[in-house]
Amino acid sequence: MTEKTLKTTPPTTRPIRRNAPAKTESVRRPVRFGGARKVASQHKTEQSPALFDSSKRPNKVRVIPLGGVEEIGRNMTLVEYGNDILIVDAGIQFPEEETPGIDFIIPNTAYLEKNKHKIRGIIISHGHMDHIGAIPYIIDKVGYPTIYTTGFSRATILRRQEEFTHMKKINVEEINPKSVLSLGQFKIKFFETAHTIPDAIGTVIGTPLGNIIYPGDFKFEIDDNGKPMHYEQYEALGKENNLALLMESTNAETPGFSVPESVVRKNLEEFIKNAKDRVIIGMFASLVERAMEVVNIAEKYDKKVVIDGYSLKNNFELVKEFGYFKPKKDTMITPEEAEKYPPSKIIAILTGSQGEKNAALMRVANKKHKYIKFQKTDTVILSSSVIPGNEKSIQNLKDNIARQGAKIIHYRVAGVHASGHACQEDLKLMLKFIKPKYLIPVHGHYFMLKINSDLAESVGMPKENIAVPMNNGVIIEMDKDKIETLKESVPANYVMVDGLGVGDVKEVVLRDRQMLSQDGIFVMITVIDSQTGKVRNSPDIISRGFVYLKESQELLRSTRQLIRKTVEEATGKMHPINMDFVKEMLREKIGKFLFQKTKRRPMVLPVMIEV
Ligand SMILES: [Zn+2]
Q: Which of 33, 69, 246, 360 is the most exposed place for a label (fewest CB within 10 A)?
């Protein structure tokens, strides 16, 4: 009985997104839903308005961002012409994944579900979670269309899909920069882009009215001669009939060109070369290419590399497995093996440069890592920027590192990090190359899109040729004469995925484990008289990893009192008793109370026995 109750009872407190990347103010808490349901949608304002009917407006190209224009992440856009819809990217909200399995948000697919018959495919620009993460959650709703993407992205998608054992097989076709596809009336080509993960690709969607160009996430890697990488293909592309450019805005606030990765590599190499002892590099899990570079440098100086961090390790396994990278046989070692080598032979790449509590770097800083401990002779390179909102946890991280005497090298002074996203000059250069008639800024908060738009104006693009999406779900329609945002829109209200409902998913297990390991579990067993709604006896409390019960008698006593009060207040006028409601109240109240008293958030499980 108990077991069954436990299984069907979601935990009280949601994991706190302690150091996750800054979230938008528009993010709402998920609605509650029980049992087997995995996805619930939350309505912003009106309840299911009649869906936009495109059939009355033929001969126009429509671009509809379903996600990614009110936030960083959740990128998903559709391009529609006549009877054909093409989807580009399908991401979740979190670009970083150091807190695997926590609740996240996916794009709303209501419009696509209604127009399933028109969907000709999904194009994926690259394998970051904010571009692929929603695939397992939306693919069945949109009728399992074929996904087209490059090798590494394909491998990443398929590897992730393995965790969703209950699903039908998805069809992912591999393309390369030279591929040409004909999907409905769309003629599709690709071009190479520079980002931070192998095989990122830009897409040219040819429509009868001209090309819609979507570079995805990009930056220009400028070489020593001042030439951007792949510039020939951009020049060639600029000669075509380019109707609209969908351009990212993530770094639209940052002046100049983005720092080329080659510069970062050089600087990292200098530090590694000159470090007398061990080098520890903290970086984002998404920077797969940089991690590969570090391994190259390590081999040059005859050092061993340890990688620790769930997502980075996974990504790294994939690049090796699929032949994108071939480190020498004995270069990569486990944290355990590292103890066998002199520290001067070791480079450790750890995730958690944002001070995420459970990430590898923080565990080392907090002396909680099983094998790696900071030493006075260590050089710690933070090869990442500060994501707004994480300042405090990063300071904390740096404090803990400094206290142990290690030397910290930070990106601002040492050029050991470069963003993978286009800065202002990159954006202008892309416009100059492509020469599109229209610009649609995407990827970012509205103010970022607006800056992107201002930039375009500053280099001569007429204001009326720019359509800045005000929010997700807007319908931007264009033909040869004009571009406009329609008054109508398609549903874009948030769709939440509750990791707990997904079943046998590794990430979920991890999440629970993280939560339990941080703050423990708190089970309260309450016997209720179903007639009177009164609590019988004193509620039983079982807890693990939360507080030492024997020393917390006072806390237990007041918790028991609060349980009784909460239950009886809830059941007072209720007949019959709605147990789910009572449990919900208990979770809420007791969770809050325990947090007030202890500053910890154990997983709170109410178990109710009716007699
Ligand atoms: Zn990316």
A: 33
- Answer whether residue 46 is part of any domain: no
Same structural domain, 432 and 579: no
CA 93 / ligand 1 centre spacing (Å) = 12
CA of 340 to the centre of ligand 1 (A): 36
Kindly report, residue by residue over 110-150, the tens digit of the pLDDT. Answer: 999 999 999 999 999 999 989 999 999 999 999 999 999 99
Say if residue 426 is in the same domain as residue 562.
no
Report CA(457)–ligand 1 centroid distance (Å). 26
Of the candidates 304, 404, 398, 308, which has an alpha carbon nearest to the alpha carbon of residue 360? Answer: 308
Same structural domain, 66 and 194: yes
- Domain region containing 552: 520-610
Distance 131 CA to ligand 1 centre (A): 7
| pTM for this model (two decimals) | 0.74
Instruction: Please choose, from the candidates 417, 293, 275, 271, the residue with its C-alpha nearest in 3D space to the C-alpha of residue 354.
Output: 417
Which residue matches tokens 């999406």?
469
User: If you measure from the C-alpha of residue 415 to the centroid of ligand 1, how many angstroms do you get, rounded to a whole number?
Assistant: 20
The residue type found at 38 is: K
CATH code (residue 440): 3.60.15.10
Query: What is the 155 CA–ligand 1 centroid distance (Å)?
Result: 16
- pLDDT for 47-82, tens place per residue? 455 788 888 888 999 999 999 999 888 999 999 999
Residues 282 and 359 both lie in one domain: yes
Residue with tokens 């839903």: 33
CA–centroid distance, 311 to ligand 1, in Å, is: 14
